[in-house]
Amino acid sequence: MKPLEDVRIIAVEQYGAGPFGSMHLADLGAEVIKIEEPRSGGDVGRYVPPYGEGEDSLFFETFNRNKRSLSLDLSTDAGRRVFEDLVKVSDVVYSNLRGDVPKKIGITYDDLKHLNPAIVCCSLTGFGMTGPRSHEPGYDYVLQGLAGWMDLTGEPDGPPTKSGLSLVDYSGGFVAAISLLAGLHAARRDGVGMDCDVSLYDTAIGLLTYPATWHLNAGFEPARTRHSAHPSLVPFQAFQASDGWFIVGCAKEKFWARLASVVGRPEWAEPASGYGSFADRARNKDTLLPLLEDIFRRRTVDEWLADLYAASIPCGPINNVEQAMREEHTMARGLRVTTEHPRFGTVEQLASPVRVGSEPPEYRRAPFRNEDFDLVVREIAGYDDAAVAELRAGGAFGPETPAPEAAPAAGEAEAASR
Fold first, then answer.
1. First and final C-alpha spacing in the chain
2. What is the pTM of this model?
3. Are 190 and 115 in contact (CB under 8 A)?
């Protein structure tokens, strides 16, 4: 069995952060039933441009592989009945909504424990379910500013800068997955479920790590550093070669001694040079760094990296996305995988970095909206034709529930090889 093959998750989720977290659980074998609101066309991620067609996009494919989809209107009594019957036979209700919404729509543990005392209700919200901002929507860009990240990022004389990736969203998804698994473990041990109140704000603040500790205990005032330099280790930053940029990091004194030799200045490793220790280099960085920059500009990136790798000094190129995808190590680790999609053909995307055991995960394309209607409603919930007709008449599946799109040929639905 796959690691999470005995776990069923009802996911009231959309866009990026929530689906990112549950996708890794689905990759590990969890049955993730994605609830999509039919009146609005389901997960908004289906319509994110520029690479999309109809109700499917490459954005949606990125975050929703290995999941199932059911169109369900939770605002109707009939839709609520279906949801509650699914709660009875599931392990987790997972959501990413505004902080005040889980209680409003009745998907917290107190709302559901009478149906399943062991149900775990994991809510990933922007700001949490308590506090003065709990009613606010949380978006990665806003949170990077609010949590101090942007003030720390960029050149010292430039504007505050957002990370090139939505790291609050993605980190929040990972934190939610960890919380969900911890809650599930406790629920199976004790027979009692719980709420997991996870927020993007908490995640972003938590990732301030040691700069926050330094500030709280020693009055440290974080500041942006030139060329992405480490705040205390010198040198540990980006340097410009004659044809591009690369990174060199001396996190230990032995690396500095080796670097001094590689750049032709072995005397810099001696105490008398003024650069022989961490403290010396930090104190004299305004003198040392221009000297290093002048030396590094004399040769190409590849020429420097060849010598640095040979000396076992931490270093690396600054790749663009294309180069990162072509990296030999990317290929060796099996990080590029494919799925087959009736609309997009072969879709190449990234493997989950979560590794459990020696068996590689299988990857199945993201579902069409409501594609798994029969599986979820008839097989899992156990409704017969009469019950389905009654629920449909009550608006459970939306005013005009589209018929599930034709499934692909047998081989296409299966995960493709790495």
1. 20
2. 0.90
3. no
